[in-house]
Fold each of these.
Amino acid sequence: MCRKSAKRGTLQVAPEVAEKWKTTNTRKQILNAFIAAKGNKETFNCRMEILIKQKKELTLSIKSGFYSEELMKTELKFKPPIALTLDRIKAIVRYCTATKMRRKKLTRKDKYQRHVREYWVDVETVGKLETSHMEEFSQKYTIVDEDGSELPMPEIGGKSPSACLSLDGDSYSDDDDDGENDDESPSKTKATKRKNKKKTPSPHSKRSILRDSNKKTKSVRKAAKAKEDEVEAALEEMDRIPTILSEILKLRIKMDNTMDKLKACKEEDAKKSLANMTAQADKLMLLHDDLAELKAEHGNDAILDKLKKHCGNVEKLTILRKGKGATTDGYDAEHAVFAAHGQHLDRVLPLQIHADEGQTLKKSAVMIISWQSPLGFGTSVEDDVAAAMHLNFIGNSYATRYLFAVCTKKTYQKKKAHVLDNIIDILAKELYDLFHDGIWLSVGNEKVQFWIATLGLKGDWPIQSRLGHLERHFARKGVYQESATSGSWFKGADTSCVCLFFEEYLEKKLPDISNDDLAYFASMLDAFRSANAFLRVLYKSGLWLSQDRCRAAAQAGLDFIRSYLEIAAMAHEAERTRFKLTPKLHAMIHITDHMVSGLERGLRWTLNPLSESVQMDEDLVGKVSSITCTVSTRQVHLQTIRKYLTNLWSHLRGTSCS
């Protein structure tokens, strides 16, 4: 019965039964049903099926999106404990930047703030499991004619079943059509049908329309892609502007040197060349200014603002002590630290950050970022009172400065500039947490909470401009040139050694100088004497300057500035060559003004400017840079940090400063 007859190819059972007969698992059930029907075909065909359906459905919904590290804290509410929050964010960043493919798919730059890096974060996974159990009873009758012919569809009330299933307002019948077309002639009906037939597009025309639509869509996508690439290229060119500005300044320096040589020539050709070169130099500086303005309009100083915010409005945050000399009374009373930690200033620890580039293999640069306390064991010549506290100069830099990050130039240059920005961003966030949440330490047999207050970022002007993305800085207008000192003595002693040498030299040679140059060299000797007096007071003092020491240092600083201006005026008037050694007069004026302001305000203590010096920090930069030259280039960062930790441990255990 379940097979088609050889003559007519018909079945004596329902097609569903024939399909089940082909399956071995259900064939036994069909045989049992046929036996239960006692071999009667009609009874077998009128069968009762009991269908038991079980349905289990699992639905997962993953909420994801691009988030910056700041948004992970605010919107995703990665809240306490803060350590787990930072670990979670670090894990997300590490996963999204592990491979080149992940960096391409799981990270992107913010549309409006190009310096902000966003990461693809799976916020939550919501699941829904549904289980349903249903029993369905259906009675099916299979009518099979003896001769195999199909029976006509039964009619109810002389109408087709489709008429019975029509809905109000949606029904459609031939009677309605006939009613509408009663007054239409047959010829008009045929013409309308032919017209409608013409409106129906052929399969070939449909394919051509689809092809045209696809072509338009592709062209639109291609144009959008080209526009996006153009914007991305423009942004990359914008990132190259600082490098171009630096190259322009270097070219201007070379042009100035050439123009100085042309001025010495008296020939007509030299004068013409000098005029042309002067005009070109002016155009070059105009181009420099235009590029700088363009960069300033599209610039980004968000990281600097964020760092200032995290450091508690960094200006001159000082050592915070309460009840032991009242050192900070009146120094910066409006500072945020007094509002946040005014009740426990004795448990707020000061911190300073330093960043600078060292030199590694093939004279390539390596960024070294460290931190230290301004409090230390003083200097070797200090003779100040205990209430002035001590500067952080004595001791090996391994034991007084602590490495935070080491990063080779190729890791953060050009298109990878965001790497260094991310390092500074992580540092700023950790400083923010230390300032507001603090840290618990074991003091004796009890746990005590301390807070960290950051004084500021130390470093030379180029590194300040680089890390802060400054658009208005010392190289904004004009030409500058950095000179690298060399010698066998310690780099931090260059200034004091040179000043002491020239003071002694001029004292011996001044009697032999002619009267024409006597005033010139006498002013020079006064300048060196004032500079040595200035440095001597600072190095012999503690972290804080008393009013007497502050007055002596400020007076020496003003005397040096006055003598230097006299020398510069004399040299300019006599058309002498430029000085081979030039002080940073701008910085010197700020330092002196800082002490003068303290005296005018009547402060009992003024912060020693040596607390912001970088000579010991640069010593650590040189040591860590030398380590990078002794490790594998494939694992330079990891192996450098391991060697640094070994040296740190040995110096901390072997150094005893008291």
Amino acid sequence: MEINRLKTFLVIAKNGSFKAAAELLFLSPRAVSKQMDQLENELGVKLFIRRHNNTDLTPTGTKFVIAAEDIVNTYNDELIRIQSEQQTKEKRLKIGFSSSNQEIATQKMLIPLLKSDPTIKLEFRQESGQRLQQLVHTGILDLAVSPYYYMQNDMTDPSLSRIELAKGDLVVGISSLNKLAQADSVALGDLKDLEVLYYSPYASLYLKKIFFEKFNQTFSEHQINRVSSLELRDMLIASNQGIGFYPSPFLTLEQQKNPLIRFLPIADDVNTTYASTLFYKKNNHNLVLHQLLTYLL
């Protein structure tokens, strides 16, 4: 199966038309259409419902998105691994982070390392937290920084070690237009009818599961909804169209960014613990990683 056809298929699935995919991939619409004809012929199924101005996926096409993503990700990971093996033995650290908050924690973590040796080469990659753990597990990344939520049903990779970089609690972000924002804290029962908004750039249900289980199922799953950008999440919350959960270690920045949002501790006796966390494998022999760990442990 030709990898470029799968990549083209995923761009069409994400953007909803052959024309948009052609523009993004710097191909002609005819070339895109030909690739998809070849892919459909190879699979023996129809992946698209073609219309004049847009393209919808068939039910089979929708299911195939997951398989195509897995194949493309596996190919990309293996390519990176091969390229890494071919590189000279220079001082290099491959780092992943999952969000802007984790990027801040990563920068702070790197300060002593880079002060001691500015010649270290750093490579960065942004992915979802679960995806980052897979990349650390397979050796594509040396380490990853992403949230850890201290769940009873731990969803993290048990083979990875972790170090807390910034620990605190999740607090509620609520519009100052909402009367509940006038209190010093808020009970989950007072929030149970409000929509919970979370940000993820990926079509992932991970945070939906976290917030559903972490707060004793106060919120139904259909109340907990993903938005595609931090800015959109914050604007919806600021305008009293939902609430969000924010990590306390980064509240100073959140307060500066969001003057219409109040951040309140949760009054209930529930598990609100959160940490920005470094994940790594103990058997990783990268000397730069071990140098970094000496500053953190």
